[in-house]
């Protein structure tokens, strides 16, 4: 078990992210780095009837300026909350454990946090509690330069690259000829496997 790992913030993070947290005593979430576009920091993937579907939280700053992730504000001029909640409901309402967890996810998303970091933290706090992941979550106090250390995962977990570890296959709501779909948000696991989810982390 890794004593402490360093990770980026993530919106409804992928299974491998939560799996890494479960293998650690302490997870330090980077809050001082500059915001990076097209990452799990403000996006996730769910499994719809048409395959993997990307959900992105729009932000007011960061796309064109060097802005610390802790200062990135959510853009509520776009109706992203309704879009995300409808998509999640359409994808998972027939899954075995949807009714047990959806209301809590909806509640957090509709609290209208000002900052992306706060939204992600509240969702992560709910998820690790629901999944019974025993890890102490803290924020970094200052920016740590990219290290070669094996416990720095900030730039290794990315939708642009293959996962660091394959998720153990579980029953997914939709079955495709290509087989089990990797890289999905951990809510896919939670809605489908419920209290048994920990076995797959």
In short:
The chain has 201 residues and is of the alpha/beta class.
**Terminal Cα separation, in Å?**
13 Å
Overall pLDDT confidence: 92
Principal-axes shape call: globular
Which class of secondary structure composition applies to the elements? alpha/beta
Order of helices and strands: EHEEEHHHEH
Query: How are the strands of the biggest sheet laid out side by side?
Result: 1-2-5
Task: Tell me the number of structural domains.
Answer: 1
Q: How helix-rich are the residues, as a percent range? A: 25-40%
Oligomerization state: single chain
Number of helices: 5
Strand content: 5-15%
Uncertain regions spanning at least 5 consecutive residues: none
Give the radius of gyration: 16 Å
State the major sheet: 3 strands, parallel
**Using DSSP, what is the number of strands?**
5
Short descriptors:
alpha/beta; two-stranded antiparallel ribbon; 5 helices; single chain; 201 residues; 3-stranded parallel sheet; 14% strand
Structural description of this entry:
The chain is built from five helices and five strands. The two termini are 13 Å apart. Helix 1 (15-22) packs across helix 5 (186-193), helix 2 (80-92) runs antiparallel to helix 3 and helix 3 runs antiparallel to helix 4. The longest helix has 15 residues, at 116-130. A three-stranded parallel sheet has the order 1-2-5, covered by helices on one side. Strands 3-4 form a two-stranded antiparallel ribbon. With 201 residues, the chain is of the alpha/beta class. It has one domain (2-200). Helix content is 28%, strand content 14%. A hairpin with a 2-residue loop joins strand 3 and strand 4.
